[in-house]
């Protein structure tokens, strides 16, 4: 059994501080040049993740994001809570009355908003090497899982971008947000 000690908590707080600090800083820079804040937050994840930080400074990345099960569980739980609250806040912007009046358009936008990312993601994920799959995955299950996850994530990203651009309350933005949150 894994127990949390003060070192786990200290490192977790440092991780959260650096991740949120970088996300907020880059989102403010993006907002200053009229790009949705979400782009800066995604960029912070790319810069601090294994894609860049892990390749340029592998030992520092391994210290800051150790393979310790307890540490990963803490950070993973925080990230899932973040996804939950992102979806929840996107749902708060749904104008149900407008969605019901514009039902056909909302459904069409929702279907396209899920199918297009799925159609783009599946062939890409199908080509990834087996070392990324996990023990029990097959090429089909791996590609399908990541494609579904990517298309579902696209829904909340679009809703958040509409909110960042302050167009989620417009007629067009409301149609997109409401269809994607259903």
Automatic annotation (TrEMBL):
Membrane topology: Multi-pass membrane protein
Protein name from the UniProt record: Cation:proton antiporter
Alphabetized InterPro entries for the sequence: Cation/H_exchanger_TM, CPA2_transporter, Na+/solute_symporter_sf
Originating species: Aquimarina gracilis
Keywords: Ion transport, Membrane, Transmembrane, Transmembrane helix, Transport
Transmembrane segments: 42-65, 77-94, 106-125, 137-159
Domain Cation/H+ exchanger transmembrane: 27-171
Keyword Glycoprotein listed: no
């Amino acid at each position: 059994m894994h127990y949390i000690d003060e070192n786990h908590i200290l490192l977790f707080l440092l991780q959260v501080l650096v991740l949120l600090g970088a996300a907020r800083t880059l989102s403010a820079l993006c907002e200053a040049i009229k790009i949705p804040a979400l782009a800066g937050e995604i960029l912070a994840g790319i810069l601090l993740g294994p894609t860049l930080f892990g390749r340029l400074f592998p030992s520092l990345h391994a210290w800051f994001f150790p393979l310790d099960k307890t540490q990963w569980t803490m950070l993973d739980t925080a990230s899932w809570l973040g996804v939950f609250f992102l979806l929840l806040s996107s749902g708060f912007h749904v104008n149900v009355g407008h969605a019901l009046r514009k039902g056909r358009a909302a459904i069409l936008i929702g279907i396209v908003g899920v199918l297009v990312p799925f159609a783009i993601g599946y062939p890409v994920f199908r080509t990834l090497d087996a070392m990324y799959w996990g023990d029990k995955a097959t090429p089909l299950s791996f590609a399908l899982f990541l494609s579904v996850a990517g298309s579902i994530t696209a829904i909340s990203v679009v809703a958040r971008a509409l909110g960042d651009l302050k167009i989620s309350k417009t007629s067009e933005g409301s149609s997109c947000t409401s269809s994607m949150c259903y």
